[in-house]
């Protein structure tokens, strides 16, 4: 579990690809109250929508953390950013990174952080002691988003449902399992980066027993059908012991992410396998709805697709961006 | 992948529980040619069967590695052993540990190893660069042992089959996925200790494409039915892309290992789920036999149990220790 100091200054470097600043945009979109501004370099053509400011301006206005809000292929730390990170530490900010490379592997950053009494947070790398899972029944209700594939909107769907629950004053907590979600929540565990023995146990710690009426909304990862990541997805499913599952899908994708010639499973297959495997640790686990990213088709086609799925499966089906998730929440709140 | 220098001197400390020296005994039983002797301290009441010798005697006789051949609860390194480890390094031996605690976290050991040009091998902790899995079809045949539970004889069964294949001059390699197996093989990857994203990919690297008639005998871990470790088992199953599976089981166990009140799955359930999940990356995957640890019952009862299972499932069923694995190998060699 990480505990991150806010507000954040979102550093987006000289990014030109909107997808490369997903981490910064997630925080700006879902936790605007935690984001004081963005710091950008000449050449940057994208934005989080937060006001632009320098490191010193942000520090003066109370910023507490400097967030490396972008990703490049490989997750490496570009040495060009080291002077900016040093500047932020000297200005009194903690530094938060979601890169594979660890800030703490740079002795000069460790030294500066120590000198100025600041923290270096490598949020992709779990800190703290993890245990193995047990699968014992625990109090409280839990929802987990699962997928036909990776990158099909599990975090977005989870956050949208959590926000709707907040608005309806239903006691609930968003439980982050990846670096973008951790930045939004200010805490969490990147489950795809824990030691394999601890996947399920980490989720049991992340979403512990709670009051009977409280909902944990747990961000899913990967897919039981993905040949690289199914182990992570299964450990997450077993550790979550979810009462309710929502299947996420991206319309029009022809092959599993980063794998050639592997078609996505059908929604029916995805529902059946997730329910089968989830019931090993929660016999009541049930898929209660479907969330689809329909951005590849027109609004009319999206509506027709969702209507057809609803008819076929007897479950509500929405595009969370186009239609919101209120109809999923309506069904969620009927789960005993 | 680890590459370990042999012969080994097996250090068993002052152990009194035969189970606590599983690592040392595995090496002595399965790779006696790699074991020059054992080093024991006053109070030790167990043995690997290797000749007793001091560190200096072993060094004189050509020992190349000093093996911490025991485990204690928690996998911690007892500071009492540091002087012996230092002694071994100064005598010119590498040091091999299967503990959770890393040798390389002890600056004094790192310094001595550097001074004497020796290696510190933490074989539970994967070294080298891992990739994510792809699930692409690859040449060569592979067998994976799977289980109803943890600690049901998957390593023993795998090694017994591999030895039988060697005796029949069938080209084959034992692929180790845990610390005891790695010590036997001299190389391998402890898959339960890799970062979760890389479970399947690590197995693809461990058991790469080979000639069409070559068998990789891959040591399984955990169980798809274990609430803590199913994610590891699924990643292993997907990465192995095994043509043949052998289900391992321990007769008379009343609950899944380290979990209260969770009965073991039936053999039928274990076969069905492993075949279902394995076929995601190898549509031809098939359970070809059953290996049971029958040590809880008499020889007569063991034979009756195995005969009943054979009748019920139509698959050969043996206790590898009591009956050997020749009958499993007979069936294995009929796999196209």
Describe the structure using short key phrases.
homodimer, 336 residues, alpha/beta, Rossmann fold, six-stranded parallel β-sheet, five-stranded parallel β-sheet, 16% strand, DUF1611 domain-containing protein (chains A, B), DgcN-like (chains A, B), DgcN-like_N (chains A, B)
Tell me briefly what this model is.
The structure is a homodimer of 336-residue chains. The first copy, chain A, is 33% helix and 16% strand.
What do you see in this structure?
2 copies of one chain form a homodimer. The first copy, chain A, has helices spanning 22-30, 55-60, 82-90, 107-116, 154-167, 179-185, 199-206, 230-240, 267-278, 299-313, 320-323, 326-332; strands at 8-13, 35-40, 65-68, 94-97, 120-122, 141-147, 172-175, 215-218, 244-250, 286-293, 317-318. With 336 residues, the first copy, chain A, is an alpha/beta fold. Chain A folds into 2 domains: 8-122, Rossmann fold; 141-332, 3-Layer(aba) Sandwich (Rossmann fold). In chain A, α1 runs parallel beside α6 and α3 packs parallel to α4. The model of chain A has no long low-confidence stretch (mean pLDDT 96). Chains A and B meet through α7 and α8 of A and α7 and α8 of B.
């Amino acid at each position: 579990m990480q505990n991150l100091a806010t507000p954040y200054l979102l550093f987006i470097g000289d990014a030109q690809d909107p997808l490369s600043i997903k981490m910064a945009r997630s925080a700006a979109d879902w936790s605007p109250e935690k984001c004081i501004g963005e710091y950008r370099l000449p050449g940057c053509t994208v934005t989080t929508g937060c006001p632009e400011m320098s490191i010193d301006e942000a520090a003066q206005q109370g910023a507490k953390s400097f967030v490396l809000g972008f990703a490049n292929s490989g997750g490496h730390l570009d040495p060009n950013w080291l002077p900016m990170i040093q500047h932020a530490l000297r200005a009194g900010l903690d530094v938060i990174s979601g890169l594979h490379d660890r800030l703490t592997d740079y002795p000069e950053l460790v030294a500066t952080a120590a000198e100025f009494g600041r923290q270096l947070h490598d949020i992709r790398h779990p800190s703290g002691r993890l245990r193995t899972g047990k699968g014992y029944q625990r109090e409280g209700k839990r929802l987990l988003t699962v997928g036909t594939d990776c990158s099909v909107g599990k975090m977005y769907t989870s956050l949208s449902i959590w926000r709707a629950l907040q608005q309806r004053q239903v006691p609930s907590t968003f439980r982050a399992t990846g670096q973008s979600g951790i930045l939004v929540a200010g805490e969490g565990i990147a489950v795809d980066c824990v030691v394999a023995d601890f996947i399920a146990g980490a989720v049991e710690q992340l979403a512990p027993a709670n009051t009977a009426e409280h909902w944990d909304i747990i961000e899913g990862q990967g897919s039981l059908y993905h040949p690289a990541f199914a182990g992570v997805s299964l450990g997450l499913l077993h550790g979550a012991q979810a009462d309710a599952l929502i299947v996420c899908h991206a319309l029009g994708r022809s092959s599993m992410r980063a794998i050639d010639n592997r078609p996505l499973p059908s929604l029916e297959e995805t529902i059946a396998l997730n329910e089968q495997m989830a019931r090993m640790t929660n016999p009541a686990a049930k898929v209660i709805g479907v969330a689809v990213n329909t951005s590849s088709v027109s609004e009319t086609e999206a509506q027709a697709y969702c209507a057809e799925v609803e008819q076929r499966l007897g479950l509500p089906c929405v595009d969370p961006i186009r239609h919101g998730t209120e109809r999923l929440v309506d069904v969620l709140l009927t789960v005993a």
